[in-house]
Amino acid sequence: MSAVPDSPKTIALIGNPNSGKTTLFNALTGANQKVGNYSGVTVALKSGETYTPHGKKLRVLDLPGCYSLRASSLDEKVAVDALTGQLPGYSKPDLVVCVVDASNLERHLQLALQVIELKIPVVVALNMVDMAERSGLRLDPAKISEELGVPVVPMQANASKGLIELKQALRFPFPHAAEPHWATDPDHAEKSRREYVMQICEVAARRPDAHQLTFSDKLDNYLLHPVFGWIFFAVTVFLVFWSIFSFAAIPMGWIESAQAAISGWMEATLREGDFRSLLVDGVIGGVGGVLVFLPQILLLFFFIGLLESSGYMARAAYLMDGVMAKAGLSGKAFLPLFSSYACAIPGVMATRTIDSAKERIVTIFVAPWMSCSARLPVYFLLVPLLMHEKEGNSWKQALILFALYALGTGSAFMVARVLRRKLGADKSINHFLLELPPYRAPQWNYIFRHVLDRAWAFIAKAGTIILGLSILLWALSTYPKYDGDPADALEHSTMGKIGAIIEPAVRPLGFDGRIGTAILTSFAAREVFNSTLSVLFRVEDAGDEQATRNTLREKLASATWPDGRPIFTPLTMVSLLVFYIYALQCLATSAVVARESGSYKWAVGQFFFMSAFAYVASLLIFQVGKLFGF
Amino acid sequence: MNIDWQTLAAAGIVIMTLCIFLLKLTRGNKKASPCGHNCGCKKI
Predict the structure, then answer these.
(1) Does the ipTM surpass 0.85?
(2) How do residues A580-596 score in pLDDT, each as one tens digit?
(3) Which of A74, A468, A591 has its CB closest to that of B41?
(4) Half-sphere exposure of residue A267, counting CA atoms within 13 Å on the CB side?
(5) What is the pLDDT of residue A433?
(6) Among A233, A428, A548, B39, which is least packed, fewest CB within 10 Å?
(7) Which CATH number do you get for residue A167?
(8) Is A146 a member of any domain?
(9) Is the pLDDT of residue A37 over 50?
């Protein structure tokens, strides 16, 4: 019998937030979607492929988490539309795998009953049975299956346990749609479901008679304590920043050594000329100047992954709910804003979990002020210079970095509060519901895969946009060629002329034309600031590792105005740091804001507001500082 | 006028880079919305 080549059947993974859908999706498809022990990690529909035990291809859809099929938030609507076949480009799924947290059946089964009521074939994946059993729950999957009328597969998706059994349940022909015999009274559907779920739990998921505090409950007594909880939160955040500064110093040294070795080899191999200058000053100086910050950026992503995966991120959101309320936001805005510390783009995407449209737009608007990792190269360049120290293990540098983040965050909260008031109250009342998942050992494989993914994205960016801009910046600072004294060549180049034109505009901020030019070039991407300065200040490999490390800072420290005054005074550097906290210098973020807000109006308004705010803030800092004699 | 290979190579790389940037700028990035449609994000 020959096989009939028909299109693959579609299965959809649905479940409450944080039930492990994305983990199961990754295990089924071998994909690398981000996983967190936190509600709302999946904010859009993801598609992948898997195979039945008989080799038939299946299309797998990972839907965002939802508590019911009467979803109110945007990400929940995606799930409901996909399930009911209303999402263009996606047919109605042939089978739904309902992922339920075995330790929380009372709530998770409510959604399973609603899906069964749609008369679609359903398989229930009883996930995290290990944790449920550890908490003392006595599960009877066969009884649950009998009561629901659908196959129930106990599993532990993060360890790929039960995956084979689940695939067996996905064999063709799919199971028939079950009869929802509990749904007898449409007027009291929710009550009927609740009672039926309680009935199932009574016979198939029995809890120990005496209430026992789990390990997570005991830990939460301290970590959610009004005093100790905040101390732990502050210490955790500070340690993350301190670690980024200190641990990354070693791999940064390796990158710098490699950079110096390649530059040295090129200078020894090629005679002096434009091509050698392009490679050494333009490409290696520019791209290397950005790549050297890769270890710090990876550490930041590693810590965010660790906090999400362990379950602490949800506690931080719980703690922050009260703080967020002061800015007119809810705890649901915490994850988008915290993610923005890594990159504003996923942060803006994550706002889809916010129910209130007005709260969502406010969160999108202020998200770029949560200092993203692209600002780190600028901070790492300027902070040690400000402290007259070498880069590396210093609590003072960590404290300054912490203050920069705090200033951005505090300003974001203040603007959010003003904007939230201006937009007015919501038409409907939205409640903040947050699930506190049990603490788990971090899923190292997913954390490392995610960190590697970010590393590749950063390297790809350095290898494309930043490489291209470095080459163009080199050209601007080299052409037209000047035959006079080489020391005056830059002044006569295109870059020198642009700097002279914009200098009057940036001089009140304490910047000369070169800093102004570097700011101008970094409006496409902030990281370009360092490479522009490297080119403008003619930073070359000094041969010695220690000398190479500090060359740019030394050049900046010795740069002077025509009258001999130093350019990089502490006041100028503070002014520059403040400018970089507030300026929106990322085209990709603006594009995502336009898409997510549904209008270019918000993206353009945000860009001009933040740029103007950055200019005025720097101006005030510099001029007021000068008045006080700094 | 004596132009050596290094000058030509550097100028060639710069012109090529400029062309790639201009091409990217005029063509734009037409990525599909990851949310599909009708997700409520007002993207049509």
Answers:
(1) no
(2) 999 998 777 787 788 77
(3) A74
(4) 14
(5) 65
(6) A428
(7) 3.40.50.300
(8) yes
(9) no
